[in-house]
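Long-time lurker, first post. I've been practising inverse folding by hand and with some scripts of my own, and I keep getting stuck on stretches where the structure tokens seem ambiguous. Below is the full token string for one chain I'm working on. Before anyone asks, I'm not after the true native sequence, just a reasonable design that respects the backbone. If someone could post their per-position residues I'd love to compare against what I wrote down in my notebook.
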């Protein structure tokens, strides 16, 4: 297992800027599983961070090394659930969670790398591996601990068996039309109104039927930006807004109501991702505006409670926040049980590449629909991936390369490894030189 601290200097263009994260350097704590098969595939996985702390995240992945190195590749790939349980069940590391935060994200990165390897060995894209799998085997991949009060293994099996009906037809629809996407690219908080308007119009022209704006820093600015966005896209395109956890419950209600005249489709992360009852109150107060959250929801247990409490209209699972594919299967099954649409979070580094597989599996072999479902798309950093997500007419095209689309180019790893990759070494040397100049001048 090789690990990498990969950071991109995105803060310099304000790409990714929002009310809580004004200067993100989009980063990946990245790992590669190498085997002793000379021509065999490698397994790639990562989790997403936004700069400082990516070294902490890499250290957490390193802490899992003993559970993975030296194991039989065949055993790992036959049953990723086994390794998922071993990683989550490490009793000393579990103290750092349980099942939340840096350690849990590290588990997710490693588990996802195992799934990448498994899918490559089966020569299938991950969505196809999952869609072809026996319902019984998929159920065996889910950890039902703490969720059986909402979803039993028997219910999950029924959902997956029903999901098989019409699977072949939906797979051909997916291959022909892709999976609907929406774009956040116009809406970063640091962009000027002119840039927002231009990008919003471009998004509609490119076939997107929904865009998203970051809000929550200043109400007068938000009113002006929402007005500009609504004018740019017209009445028929959905306009979502995203506060990135900026508000208390009361503020979330007032602020969302103040933006209601622009007909926002959903308010995303109105408050703390841990505040289940707060989300329920916001949802009751701002309807018909929908409430969405999930990119910072720590695990299946919190998702379960959000659904039980009627606190969300939309589940925004993230491929790299929770414990990997196995836990996301649990979350997809919970959402299906409660009949709540999943609109995955993406963007970041490689999150689009990963999460499309989960949504496509859900369409082909679980929920069976794309109605009111869209995957987020953000158009940057895809060039670093060997099999980048491809958008056509506002939809993700189904990836066909074997694996989880997680492989980054070797050259990108070598350039953006922090702090010794070629980009950062030169950048840090330049900063030191600048400091020296200041000293001399002073
Ligand atoms: Mg968001």
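-- Answer (accepted) --
I ran through it position by position. Result:
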């Amino acid at each position: 297992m090789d690990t990498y601290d990969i950071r991109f200097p995105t803060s310099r263009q304000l790409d990714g800027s929002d009310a809580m994260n004004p200067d993100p350097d989009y980063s990946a704590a990245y790992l590669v599983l190498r085997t002793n098969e000379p021509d065999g595939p490698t397994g790639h996985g990562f989790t997403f961070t936004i700069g400082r702390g990516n070294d902490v995240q890499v250290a957490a992945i390193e802490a899992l090394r003993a559970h993975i190195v030296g194991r039989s590749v065949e055993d790992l790939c036959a049953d990723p659930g086994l390794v998922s349980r071993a990683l989550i069940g490490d009793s000393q590391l579990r103290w750092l969670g349980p099942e939340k935060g840096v350690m849990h994200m590290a588990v997710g990165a490693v588990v996802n790398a195992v799934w990448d390897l498994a899918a490559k060995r089966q020569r299938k894209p991950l969505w196809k591996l999952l869609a072809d799998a026996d319902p019984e085997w998929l159920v065996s991949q889910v950890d039902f601990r703490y969720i059986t009060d909402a979803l039993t293994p028997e219910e999950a099996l029924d959902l997956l068996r029903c999901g098989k009906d019409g699977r072949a037809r939906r797979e051909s629809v997916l291959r022909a039309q892709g999976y609907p996407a929406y774009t956040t690219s116009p809406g970063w908080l640091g962009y000027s109104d002119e840039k927002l308007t231009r990008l919003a119009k471009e998004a509609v022209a490119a076939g997107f039927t929904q865009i998203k704006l970051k809000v929550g820093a200043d109400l007068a600015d938000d009113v002006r930006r929402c007005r500009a966005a609504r004018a740019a896209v017209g009445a028929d395109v959905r306009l979502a807004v995203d506060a990135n956890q900026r508000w208390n419950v009361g503020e979330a209600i007032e602020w969302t109501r103040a933006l209601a005249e622009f007909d926002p489709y959903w308010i995303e992360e109105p408050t703390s991702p841990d505040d289940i009852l707060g989300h329920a109150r916001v949802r009751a107060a701002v309807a018909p505006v929908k409430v969405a959250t999930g990119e910072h929801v720590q695990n299946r247990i919190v998702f379960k409670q959000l659904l039980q409490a009627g606190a969300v209209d939309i589940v925004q699972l993230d491929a790299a926040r929770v414990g990997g594919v196995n836990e996301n299967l649990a979350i997809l099954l919970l959402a299906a049980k409660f009949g709540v649409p999943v609109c995955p979070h993406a963007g970041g580094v490689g999150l689009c590449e990963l999460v499309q597989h989960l949504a496509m599996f859900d369409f082909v072999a679980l929920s069976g629909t794309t109605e009111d479902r869209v995957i987020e798309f953000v158009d940057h950093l895809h060039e670093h991936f060997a099999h980048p997500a491809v958008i056509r007419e506002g939809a993700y095209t189904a990836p066909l390369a074997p694996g989880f689309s997680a492989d980054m180019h070797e050259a990108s790893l070598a350039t953006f490894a922090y702090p010794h990759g070629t980009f950062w070494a030169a950048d840090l040397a330049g900063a030191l030189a600048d400091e020296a100049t200041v000293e001399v001048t002073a």
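A couple of notes from the structure itself: The mean pLDDT is 96. The longest helix spans residues 101-121. Happy to go over any region you disagree with.
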